[in-house]
Design goal:
Strand content: 5-15%
Number of strands: 4
Mean pLDDT: 94
Number of helices: 12
Largest sheet: 4 strands, antiparallel
Distance between the termini: 38 Å
Structural class: alpha+beta
Low-confidence stretches: none
Oligomer: single chain
C-alpha cells in the first residue's frame, strides 16, 4: 500500500506556519504538533479530522478512573484502558509503515511506533490529570509516571506493560549494549519528542529512494523547531539536489559551507565542491 501523500503547496505553507508558531509558543502542545506533522504527511487530513483526533483523545481520557492513586495505579489504569480494552500496541511490521509515525493514523489503527503510542498514552493521561511524561530510552521510547523517587515506567508498544527496573535495563542493553544510566530516565521535552518522530520519518524515507518527498518535508519541519541539529541544512541541500532542484540545492550547500567554515574549513571546502557539482548539472 502506498503511504499517504502530502497536501497542496498552499495547505502545506499554512500547516508549516502553524507548526513553527506552536513550536515557539511558551508551552508547545504535543498533540497539536503531532497532528500538524500528520497533516503535512497526509493531504487527506483536514481541519475536521484534526479536531476529531483531539476529541478522541479527550473521550479516552474521560474513561479513566478519577485519580486512581499513585504512579503505579495510573500506569495500570492506562494499560487496562488503552492496551487491554482498546488494543493499542505495536509490532515489528509497524516499523515498515509511514502511518505508524502519524498520530491520527495511530488513533485509527491502534498500531504504531513506540514513540507515537507513547504520545497517545501521554496525551490521554495528561488530560486526566496524571503525572505523566515521555522517557526517551535509547532505541525504545516509553512513558513515565510520577517523580523520580517513585517513577513507574510503562511500555505502550507492549500494550502498556508496567516495567520493572530490570526490564528497562534490558531494553537499553538490547539497543546499545550499554548499561542503563539514570539520565536516560529523565522526562523528554515535547519538542525533543517531535524531533525524534521526524527523525523516524526521515529514517523510513531513507530506505525508500522513491520517497525523497517524504524525507524533504520531514527535514523542513525539523528545521522549523527552535533547537535542531545544524547538519539538517546539509541534509536538506542534498535532498534538493537529488530531486533535481540544483540551483536551490547549491545555494543551500554554499550557505551550509559558510556556516561551518569557521570550525572546519576542510569540510566546508568539500561542501563547496558539492555545490559546484550541483550547478554543473544545469549544463
Amino acid at each position: 500500500m502506498r503511504p499517504p501523500c502530502p497536501p497542496p503547496p498552499e495547505r502545506s505553507a499554512e500547516l508549516r506556519r502553524r507548526f513553527a508558531e506552536e513550536a515557539r509558543s511558551e508551552r508547545p502542545d504535543l498533540s497539536t504538533l503531532c497532528l500538524l506533522v500528520g497533516a503535512e504527511a497526509d493531504g487527506a487530513l483536514d481541519e475536521a479530522g484534526m479536531d476529531a483526533a483531539q476529541v478522541e483523545l479527550d473521550a479516552l481520557a474521560g474513561q479513566l478512573p478519577f485519580r486512581p492513586g499513585g504512579p503505579r495505579s495510573w500506569a495500570v489504569a492506562l494499560r487496562e484502558l488503552l492496551g487491554e480494552r482498546y488494543g493499542f500496541r505495536g509490532s515489528a511490521a509497524d516499523y515498515q509503515r509511514l502511518e505508524s509515525s502519524l498520530l491520527h493514523e495511530v488513533l485509527q489503527r491502534r498500531r504504531g511506533l513506540p514513540i507515537l503510542l507513547s504520545v497517545v498514552w501521554m496525551e490521554v493521561a495528561r488530560r486526566a490529570g496524571a503525572p505523566v511524561y515521555g522517557v526517551a530510552l535509547p532505541g525504545h521510547f516509553v512513558v513515565g509516571f510520577g517523580p523520580t523517587e517513585e517513577q513507574v515506567l510503562a511500555d505502550p508498544f507492549d500494550g502498556g506493560r508496567v516495567l520493572t527496573g530490570s526490564d528497562a535495563e534490558l531494553l537499553v542493553a538490547g539497543a546499545t549494549g550499554a548499561p542503563l544510566q539514570p539520565s536516560m530516565l529523565s522526562p523528554a521535552d515535547p519538542l525533543d519528542v517531535v524531533l525524534r518522530i521526524l527523525n523516524n520519518v526521515r529514517a523510513w524515507a531513507a530506505t525508500r529512494p522513491e520517497r525523497t518527498d517524504v524525507a524533504l518535508w520531514a527535514v523542513e519541519l525539523s528545521l522549523l523547531l527552535p533547537s535542531r541539529p545544524a547538519r539538517l541544512r546539509f541534509e536538506r541541500a542534498q535532498l534538493l539536489v537529488q530531486r533535481g532542484d540544483f540551483v536551490e540545492g547549491a545555494v543551500e550547500l554554499e550557505s551550509y559551507a559558510e556556516m561551518i567554515s569557521a570550525v572546519d574549513e576542510g569540510a566546508a571546502e568539500r561542501v563547496r565542491g558539492q555545490a559546484r557539482a550541483a550547478r554543473a548539472m544545469l549544463n
